[in-house]
Specification:
Order of helices and strands: EHHHHHEHEHEHEEH
Number of helices: 9
Distance between the termini: 15 Å
Structural class: alpha/beta
Protein name: HAD family phosphatase
Pfam families: Hydrolase
Number of strands: 6
Helix content: 40-55%
InterPro entries: HAD-like_sf, HAD-SF_hydro_IA, HAD_sf, PGP-like_dom2
Strand content: 5-15%
Radius of gyration: 17 Å
Largest sheet: 6 strands, parallel
Strand order of the largest sheet: 3-2-1-4-5-6
Organism: Streptomyces lusitanus
Length: about 230
């Protein structure tokens, strides 16, 4: 019998498992600069945390009046990002420990991310997380990105799990909203501390307002075991 019974865990990737937001920011800054939009700031980038790459660049087109197509912008941004992701991506240590604990206990896990499949694969391979996280869903594979529930529901389908038996680990408000819409419980670890009071996070079963500084593998495991006992 598995330690957590029928529970499965679905991880967001960027800002949750790995500190990739600096890479996404730099890739976005380089892309916009190439299309005549200089001085894209980190504060501006933060509004896109948790939003898929395709939806991000579609908003850029509207905001900045870009003539390039969404497909072209996605390709350019992904090219910049992959160059950075392969060598500069850091795994949050307690998240790695949590993933390893889940693997040791035989708990089914998946990654459901707004990133492209190529970006997800590069990060998981480059960090060694692919040894444990083999079920992967990109927002590019479903009709709608977060805050729609599509990526999480597809992850549950691939795991053969009931959505009600899935726990999502998320850092962004759109992801927390997507988990709630999917009928899944959520461990929320806000990447942007100032967003901890966002209404989307109020639906989380466990909200760690201090983000990664507060998250520990042991506390997350204990919460999961208590959740499994409650059924």
């Amino acid at each position: 019998m598995r330690a957590l019974g029928s529970l499965s865990v679905v991880f967001d990737l960027d800002g949750t498992l790995v500190d990739s937001e600096p890479n996404y920011y730099e890739a976005g800054r380089r892309t916009l600069d190439a299309y005549g939009v200089p001085d894209f700031s980190w504060a501006e980038h933060e509004r896109y945390v948790g939003i898929s790459t395709r939806e991000t660049v579609a908003d850029w087109r509207r905001r900045f009046g870009l003539s390039a197509s969404v497909d072209e912008l996605v390709a350019v941004k992904n090219r910049h990002y992959l160059e950075l992701a392969r060598t500069r991506t850091t795994v949050f240590p307690e998240m790695r420990a949590f993933v390893e604990r889940l693997a040791d206990e035989g708990v089914p896990t998946a990654v459901a991310s707004g990133s492209s499949a190529d970006a997800i694969g590069a990060i998981l391979a480059g960090t060694g997380l692919d040894a444990h996280l083999r079920t992967v869903v990109s927002a590019d594979e479903v009709a709608h990105g977060k805050p729609a529930p599509d990526v999480f529901l597809e992850a549950a389908r691939r795991l053969g799990a009931d959505p009600a038996d899935c726990v999502v680990v998320e850092d962004a408000a759109p992801g927390a909203a997507a988990a709630h819409a999917a009928g899944m419980r959520c461990i929320a670890v806000p990447y942007v501390a100032e967003q901890a009071d966002a209404p989307e996070f109020a639906t989380a079963g466990l909200l760690l307002r201090g983000g990664q500084a507060e998250f520990t593998a042991r506390a997350a495991w204990e919460w999961l075991t208590a959740t499994a006992r409650r059924g």
